[in-house]
From TrEMBL:
Source superkingdom: Bacteria
Keyword Signal recorded: yes
Signal peptide: 1-31
Record's protein name: Uncharacterized protein
Protein species of origin: Caldithrix abyssi
Key words, A-Z: Signal
């Protein structure tokens, strides 16, 4: 019996030794886990490409612009520029990618970049949008000609500089009307139309129809970007007769001069202004404004001897005006 137990024990010992040997051999076999650094087929992950995106102004000194959204839909990329106008983007190697940039105060921009296969810096340049200040769209009715005129005047501020503005155009699309504004004075950003007759919009245009029209302003930049501002409209055209009572044509005035006119009653606020010109050169020698609406006269100190013209103007709060005819008189003291 003891002999049989010894034989069985020896057999178990041999089996255990063989199994341990097999396990040892299997542990020393080549590994095939690509994520195991000790495996025979291990391949290290590629290092990401670092692309620094800089978004700058279109013109020198090319300052970085913060808060600009930059995106590339084809590779699901989106980020916002930091205070320096930069974004650091880690990505796989790219044969090409189109980056788009968008900011509230800028025209949208985009650019195609190729061979982003190594660390690099790429630049996007954005054109700043112009904006308007101190816009005035006014009308003027001439009693003596019975013509109505309009004028559009505004500051067009371009953060990239006045040289970036190629053209500023007033439009009335309903009548295919266009009028190009010009700089009021060199070195400023104030653009204005000439005084244009409402008949230039359409030969059948009437003063009553004009307030119903919708106008727009188009600002074109040198690089081809354009922006449309709308709508603009005229509040009213004041076709109000202004009857001048004295001095009358060719009157001779001695001493103080009293200008008189017929009373005017309207359903909106207005004031009067008297303009005084000295002949023969039409030199503007006096502007007497803010005369109350219920006034019918204005007296001024004696004038130097000579011939003069006077004009009465009625103006509402929006600076729409009605102008009287011109009266010629002589001052003798």
């Amino acid at each position: 019996m003891m002999y049989r137990k010894r034989i069985f024990s020896n057999i178990l010992s041999l089996l255990f030794t063989g199994l341990a040997g097999l396990l040892l051999v299997s542990c020393q076999a080549p590994r095939n886990n690509p994520f195991d650094p000790n495996a025979a087929n291990y391949k290290p992950l590629p290092q990401p490409i670092i692309t620094t995106i800089k978004v700058n102004n279109l013109y020198p000194p090319y300052q970085g612009i913060k808060g600009i959204s930059v995106f590339a839909p084809d590779v699901n990329f989106y980020n916002i520029t930091d205070v320096n106008g930069s974004i650091v983007w880690a990505h796989e190697p790219l044969d090409s990618v189109r980056l788009f940039a968008r900011g509230a105060s800028f025209f949208d921009g985009d650019s195609l970049y190729k061979n982003l296969n190594e660390n690099s810096v790429v630049n996007l340049y954005l054109n700043a949008k112009p904006y308007l200040l101190d816009t005035r769209f006014t009308s003027r009715y001439e009693n003596y000609s019975q013509f109505s005129f309009l004028r559009f005047r505004t500051r067009v501020v371009d953060p990239d500089g006045i040289a970036d503005l190629k053209q500023v155009i007033l439009r009335c699309p309903e009548y295919q009307f266009k009028d190009t504004l010009t700089l009021e004075n060199a070195g400023t950003d104030i653009f204005t139309t000439k005084d244009f007759n409402i008949k230039e919009i359409d030969s059948s245009m009437t003063a009553g129809r004009v307030p119903e029209l919708s106008f727009s302003l188009m600002a074109n930049n040198v690089n081809g970007d354009s922006l449309i501002f709308e709508p603009f409209s005229i509040i009213r055209i004041i076709e109000q007769p202004l009857v001048l009572l004295s001095p009358q044509e060719n009157d001779v005035v001695n001493g103080p001069v009293t200008f008189k006119w017929e009373k005017v009653e309207l359903d909106f606020s207005f004031t009067f202004t008297v303009f005084l010109y000295k002949l023969p050169n039409y030199d503007l020698t006096g502007i007497y404004d803010n005369i109350p609406a219920d006034s019918t006269s204005l007296t001024i100190a004696p004038l130097t001897n000579g011939r003069y013209l006077w004009v009465l103007e009625l103006k509402d709060l929006a600076e729409n005006a009605s102008q009287s005819r011109l009266i010629n008189f002589t001052s003798e003291n």
